Amino acid sequence: MSTKTKTIERNGVSKSSQASLWIRALTSNSEWPDKEEFLDVIYWARQALGIILGIFWGLLPLKGFLGLILFVVINAGVIYFYFSNFQNIDEDEYGGAWELTKEGFMTSFAGFLVMSLQCM
Amino acid sequence: MWADTLLIVFISICTALLGEGLTWLMVYRTEKYQKLKAEVEKQSKKLEKRKETHGDSLDKQHKKKIEREEERLKNNNRDLSFVKMKSMFAIGFAFTALLSMFNSIFDGRVVARLPFQPLAWIQGLSHRNLPGEDYYDCSFIFLYILCTMSIRQNIQKLLGFAPSRAASKQGNSLFGPAPGQFK
């Protein structure tokens, strides 16, 4: 019985913290006491962006190096806007804007290429 | 061609899951690994904090302390790499055999059309074992590497097996932060 209660409590806590993470990620000027959490948000946002852009680029289709460069610019631009204008975080706390801009970039780029190849 | 592309994505999802599953069986679940990993993460965070607060100070005592902690972290990282090494070799061999099998299945087959002409030094990979001079054709190995790059790392992160940022930042592990990433 006690084990069951504990499990429910634990699940409740994890669910609410998960929900609060989503809310904080989608609310501007949120507080990020845990740096890792914010970096995770940037990482997964970038993966989603890579997949979405990959589908669009494949369907349009947007080919050549212009397509690649456009992806890099949009990907970096959106993330930069997110952390500097939307969340207004202090970049220096995370090792500078460059550290945040490159967080998960290569994985996102690979995901983008795979998706654009699938949809082309 | 479309079916081949999907099949390769599926293959790389399966191999990533298999690789992580095997590593979990042989490494991640062992007490020694968990203990070492926790230790490395704790030390990395501690060292990062210490560097942030005393990084610019010229105090010799602080510098010495930082150096001592760095040394300890290096030793723990080395131990962690050795724990991983045995299984990495076993998995490496198994996956090399699997990869050569898939290579022979997809030999000479165009699995996708690239949206761009790759740079000259990538063409050897993207056009491997393919007939003709059309460099927009994509070979199995190139697509497999791309899939592995995106899928394996995300699976590792989802399952919580990826090394923490602090550890990979500080870590000088023998095989880098994500060993065997392309296997």
UniProtKB/TrEMBL annotation, chain A:
Keyword set, alphabetical order: Endoplasmic reticulum, Membrane, Transmembrane, Transmembrane helix
Membrane topology term: Multi-pass membrane protein
InterPro entries: EMC6-like, RCAF1
Organism domain of life: Eukaryota
Entries under Pfam families matching the protein: EMC6
Transmembrane segments: 41-60, 65-83
Localization of this protein: Endoplasmic reticulum membrane
GO cellular component: endoplasmic reticulum membrane; mitochondrion
Family membership noted in the UniProt record: Belongs to the EMC6 family.
Protein name, UniProt field: Rab5-interacting protein
TrEMBL record, chain B:
Transmembrane stretches, start-end: 6-27, 88-106
One term of GO molecular function: calcium channel activity
SMART domains: DUF106
Keywords for the protein's UniProt record, in alphabetical order: Calcium, Calcium channel, Calcium transport, Coiled coil, Endoplasmic reticulum, Ion channel, Ion transport, Membrane, Transmembrane, Transmembrane helix, Transport
GO CC annotation terms, alphabetical: endoplasmic reticulum membrane
Membrane topology: Multi-pass membrane protein
Annotated GO biological process: endoplasmic reticulum calcium ion homeostasis
UniProt region (Disordered), positions on chain: 45-70
Coarse class of the protein's main subcellular location: endoplasmic reticulum
UniProt-listed Pfam families: EMC3_TMCO1
Compartments, as annotated in UniProt: Endoplasmic reticulum membrane
Function of the molecule: Calcium-selective channel required to prevent calcium stores from overfilling.
Family: Belongs to the TMCO1 family.
Name this polypeptide is given: Calcium load-activated calcium channel
Source organism of this protein record: Rhamnusium bicolor
